[in-house]
Amino acid sequence: MTLFDLLLYGAARSPEKEAVVHGDHTISYRDLLAAAIAVARALERLPRGSRVAVLSENSINYVISFFAVCRAGLVVVPLDSSLKPEKLRNIIVDCGASALMVSDRYTSIVDSLVGDESPVELVLSEGSLSSESAAVNYTSIAALLADVQDAALQGLADSEIDRFSQSGPLLYDNLPECSHDLAAIFYTSGSTGDSKGVMLSHRNLITNTIATNEYLKLTAEDSVIVILPFFYIYGNSLMLTHVACGGQLVIENRFAYPQVVLQTMVRCEVTGFSGVPSNFMILLKHAAFAQKQLPHLRYLTQAGGAMPPHVIQSLIDVFRDRDIYIMYGQTEASPRISYLPPEMLAEIIGSVGVPLKGVAVHICDEAGSELPRGELGEVVVSGDLVMMGYWNQPDEQDQVLKAGRLYTGDLGRIDDGGLLWIVSRKKEIIKVGGHRVSAREVEECIAAHPAITEVAVVGVPDDTLGEALKAVVVLSNDQTADAKAIQDHCKLKLGPTKVPKHVIFTDALPRYQSGKVNKLALT
């Protein structure tokens, strides 16, 4: 079984259903399948296992491109569309991409990504290109998709659907054998600034997708509004989970306008909303989010970093009759590791819950020995979710993959009830004058101050302390506070060793396109 089979299962559940909605454009599962087959034909000239870079904003064509690459037996490399051309080219060269699929928005930079030392030999573009390298073959995606309604192609799609029409829903405990071949490489924007290519197999992604579907209770009746980029592993998970069950993806790329997002949620009657902490913080600031009637909304999911407890409580207060899932994971884990069952949330704010099916979580000391419950150590996971490794980075890989287990770099503990609690990233333990201070603990304290909307805490060099705490804060609308007020608040709540030496005020925190705070830019 490969990732392309997830599309076949979804199409068999809902062949005529709108699989993807993007503004006024829609595509049914049958046509999505036919389109993926049509585009795959242009890719099949490449040797099996070749890497294909995809540079596109969230769109129907992105979904087509992703599954076309899988259909052709190739490896998809989603590119962060917010990166500068030089960094995009570095990724293309690093992974040795033989092909580049590019949307109309980015055709103007294709010349800077191909030719010369670039390994790209085939470009599939939505729009016309201003110039073309003689060393590269060019194909129009629009021309390939013009044949989607062709009777022969539709017949092929129908025959593929028929093969799965009698199959029941995909269940973790009854999954067909999944391919161990490399399926995708996701380049992460790490805290050090160095991108690492996370290699994930079909088995990694399929097993994680189905285990996620089971705890979210997703069915063909579900639809999710997609505000997270598909090149981000969390956004990719939304795509795979909903396609696998025959659900619907509603793409909304205008999160800068929260009111527009809410209107789309109402118009499309979405049942799910998924975001990172900043998404929820921004929406909760808008009264319309709390007041809007969203009768079809069934669940909300949060991942992509720790969300302050007071924000979680605000979500509970606004959505008391909806399921709220607080989740934990990382790209190297395909991505989901654990989730907190919604019925436990009100009583256990702060925990990231229990492992998914097929996942084992251990708390280990620096020697890799497992610690008793309640003790603090590194979170180590094992199971089908563990990545294959880092592309072209064996030394980095050896630091986190040991004996088939993934050393996450997160510090946490497991309580007596078996629930996982994340305390901090190992790299975010700041050593202040001999004291080990968790950046997350200080952030949560400052975020609870009534004048503060957002905060990020980092360590900066200090001649006396070795490292000192620096807090970068965003004030709430119409609120005032000075550095001393923030420092006094921390001293009262946390004690003198956890008081930021530097407090900087800003209008907004720097972010990656995924919504995560770019702490590297704050140091």
Fold and architecture overview:
Strands 2-1-11-10-12-13-14-15-16 form a nine-stranded mixed sheet, with helices on both faces. A five-stranded parallel sheet has the order 4-3-5-6-7. Strands 17, 18, 20, 21 and 22 form a five-stranded antiparallel sheet that branches. The model has no long low-confidence stretch (mean pLDDT 93). Helix 17 links the parallel strand 26 and strand 27. The longest helix is centred in the N-terminal third of the chain and has 15 residues. The chain has three domains: 193 residues, Rossmann fold (3-Layer(aba) Sandwich); 172 residues, Rossmann fold (3-Layer(aba) Sandwich); 90 residues, ANL, C-terminal domain (GMP Synthetase, Chain A, domain 3, 2-Layer Sandwich). Helix 1 packs across helix 9. With 523 residues, it is an alpha/beta fold. Helices cover 31% and strands 27% of the residues.
Describe the protein's topology.
Blueprint: H1 3-13, E1 18-22, E2 25-28, H2 29-43, E3 51-55, H3 60-71, E4 75-78, H4 85-95, E5 99-102, H5 110-113, E6 122-125, E7 137-140, H6 141-145, H7 151-164, E8 182-189, E9 195-201, H8 202-216, E10 223-226, H9 233-244, E11 248-251, H10 258-267, E12 272-275, H11 277-284, H12 287-291, E13 299-302, H13 309-318, E14 323-329, E15 336-340, H14 342-345, E16 354-355, E17 359-364, E18 377-383, E19 389-390, H15 394-400, E20 401-402, E21 405-414, E22 420-425, E23 429-432, E24 435-438, H16 439-447, E25 452-462, E26 466-475, H17 483-494, E27 502-505
Helix pairs in contact: 1-7, 1-9, 2-3, 2-7, 8-9
